[in-house]
Amino acid sequence: MRSSRLPRRHGAVGGVAAPEALRLALGGLDSNPEKDVTHLRLARLRWLKVAVGAAALAVNLAAPAVRAQGEYFAPGIARDTEIEAILHEEMDPIFAAANMDPKQVEVYLVADPTINAETASGYHMIVNSGLIMQTKTPSELMGVLAHETGHMARGDVARVGEMTKGAVAPVITGLALGVLAAIAGAPDAAAGLIYSGSYFGQMNALAFSRDDEARADEAAVTYLEKAGYSAQGLVDFFDTFRYEEVFSDIKKDKYWLDHPLTDDRIEALAVRARAQPHWQTKDTPETIAHYEIMKAKIKAFINRPFQTFVDYPESDQSFPAKYARAIADYRELNTERALREIDALIAEQPQNPYLYELKGQTLMESSKTVDAEGPLRQAVALKPDAPLLRLLLGQDLLAENNPAKLEDAILTLNRSLLVEPDDPIPWQYLSEAYDAKGDGGMARLAAAEQNFHLGQMDDAKVFAMRARELLKKDTPEWRRATDIVLAAKPSPDDLKALGEKG
User: What H or E segment, with its residue span, contains residue 478?
Assistant: First the structure.
């Protein structure tokens, strides 16, 4: 999982964030090969998890020895290749049943303990970790997400009103800006950005009518049946929370404020679901195993390590329990113990790319970047289509501070962007890599891309204008810099400058 947390030792700021970004834009390209290899480029790892509030951020950013930020129970967008793969593996048949291209659907995992799932304009689905933790079976989780797919396929978000249009954008942009401010060492700015970008207020707009809910229920049953799943999980989940109907809005869980629940609705859903041929279909052992791994990872990364050891005692020798304990030991800085546990898991599942990823992460955050390279290369070899794994490898190669590895780092980071070209984080590290290489034009172009994908158009324009001055005219890179300037609402003076310089 990727994270905004610091590496295990306090280091200097690198990359193009904040003051460094200004330095690059103004023309300074003084690379310092003496930089601590544990500096903040190691911070963009597994959980893209952001603390809300200046106090929590100040603790996380200032402490010389920092624990994983998941210990602070604040919301943030999380990225984890394994969890995303599990969700897509189970949900893709449902997306296809809804006549949507599964590859076009973005699923965002939010590290928040409340029960919630939302859709936003376009193929965006936001899933709280609390929803995953509160469901009892895979079919319950898939049922709820099938219901959300019903809203997505029907375009309910767009019909709720103009205020909901693109609701995911300020959420994701606000959190992303907060992440980068945190990496840049500006906790107050990060706290403000994250707070203002919090999905709490934004998602309030996404309340659906009871008619919307009934239609989404019907769609969910249809999609589940076409995908070969039972709708019993959805019925069970709603039945568990039937009591929410009697609570006042103040006491209701937020999900039920946005998705009104009534006895009539539950009964209508149950009648239709029981009539489907797949009603008696059970979760497969493989589906249950993946579901338990997903829950174990979320617990291990979000909860304090001591809680993980309580939830998964040594007496539990199941794979998810051993996985969770290894993560907890890694977070407790029990590095050698964590590595032994991870090696034992790899011996058990030698073709599991996520175990090599965890081993590489553990070594990276122990300042053993050279040792981390092997496991991370193995993770990429086992799952070459995973952009986050390539990003992590690229970070490690850059952190090795070896000029001979710069080209490999640049190639690896660019390959991660082939799958997710709008992810600002690889662009940030590419800017660092090009800067270290002495390629000022490409460093500024990468910084322009980073800011462009964060929606920071003024900064994107500044970097792109400077990139045009340094890049060879009429090359694809020069044209891309020009495109960014034109897309960033240039002023008349900017347009004049473009015309003068060609």
Answer: helix 476-487
Q: Extract the tokens encoding 27.
A: 């023309």
The pLDDT tens digits for 259-274 are 556 778 888 899 999 9
- pTM equals 0.76
Strand 124-128 versus strand 117-120 pairing type: antiparallel
The secondary element (H helix, E strand) that includes residue 80 is none
124-128 and 106-110 beta bridge pairing: parallel
Largest CA distance in the chain: 73
pLDDT tens-place string over residues 88-109: 999 999 999 999 999 999 888 8
User: How many CB atoms are located within 10 Å of the residue 32 CB?
Assistant: 9
Phi, psi of 438 (to 5 degrees): 90, 15
Report helix angle 210-227 to 81-97, nearest 10.
100
Which residue, among 96, 86, 79, 90, has the nearest Cα to 392 in the 3D structure?
Answer: 79
Burial group, residue 10, by CB count within 10 angstroms (0-12, 13-18, 19+): middle
- Give the 3-state DSSP-derived string for 153-216, with helices as H, strands as E and coil as C: HHCHHHHHCHHHCCCHHHHHHHHHHHHHHHHCCCHHHHHHHHHHCCHHHHHHHHCCCHHHHHHH
